[in-house]
Amino acid sequence: MNLHSPQSSFSKPDGEGSVQVQLDPADKIKGAKVFAVYGKGGIGKSTTSSNLSAAFSKLGHKVLQIGCDPKHDSTFTLTKKLMPTVIDVLETVEFHAEELRPEDYMFEGYNGVMCVEAGGPPAGTGCGGYVVGQTVKLLKQHHLLEETDVVIFDVLGDVVCGGFAAPLQHAERALVVAANDFDSIFAMNRIVAAIAAKSKNYDVRLAGVVANRSRETDEIDRFCDKIGMQRLAHFRDVDAIRRSRLKKCTLFEMGDDPEVVAAQDEYLRLAAMLWAGVDPSTAQPMKDRDIFDFLGFE
Hints:
Blueprint: E1 2-4, E2 20-22, E3 33-39, H1 45-58, E4 63-68, H2 76-79, H3 86-92, E5 106-108, E6 114-117, H4 128-141, E7 150-155, H5 167-170, E8 173-178, H6 182-198, E9 205-212, H7 218-227, E10 231-235, H8 239-247, H9 258-276, H10 288-294
Parallel strand pairs: 3-7, 3-8, 4-6, 4-7, 8-9, 9-10
Antiparallel strand pairs: 1-2, 5-6
Cofactor: [4Fe-4S] cluster
Subunit structure: Homodimer. Protochlorophyllide reductase is composed of three subunits; BchL, BchN and BchB.
GO biological process, one term: light-independent bacteriochlorophyll biosynthetic process
């Protein structure tokens, strides 16, 4: 991956005035269906990603989940442990990637889901896009993507800088996780804009929104109708989901209470729908002032 300025030889920048981490064509993920999951910080992206990975595996697919957050807490409900990051293990060999083995940074989790924590640079330094790029390079060098059916990037918070938008360069579809509230919908609007910018030069397209931790979806649905995107799934505020994080396990290991089974079925339905293919949303994000005035009520 190389960092290009707007004045560089790269003829199609993602947006006016952009400074973006560009994808080396050799690093393109081929053969697998690739999804990137975004959303406001704390909205439940890692929970959603891990349970979606588990659901894909339940449908018989070989799944790889890549956590893209320096906290490296994306996959612990699958692996039952806090895994070392790619950057951690690269540091141990002074960034001589050829000295690493797959088992140094990739771990098997629930129902065979393979898990990698890309991590990130130390706080205030470096670029998250570089970390994502190095992770994909390692996976390709070790031929770990060749038999993978599904790759899920779980991306930190609602950061839409060029670095942490880097997974969008690999993804086929992007999902946004949001609750039925002002803050997460406001953040979702900006994420939709970032996805639209990346779609100018890459294959990624917006799949839609996953409503999470919400009894109702009226504000999400009103926003979707306004900008032209679809709601893909709805997960209610089920306490078993919160407890699954504390137990360090997936929702599929949380028993058979009716509300748990209903949530499991919704994840399986979402996985089957994504596998079959979701038509891209041609959403037109709103200006900040417009969405500020649009959301809520007097």
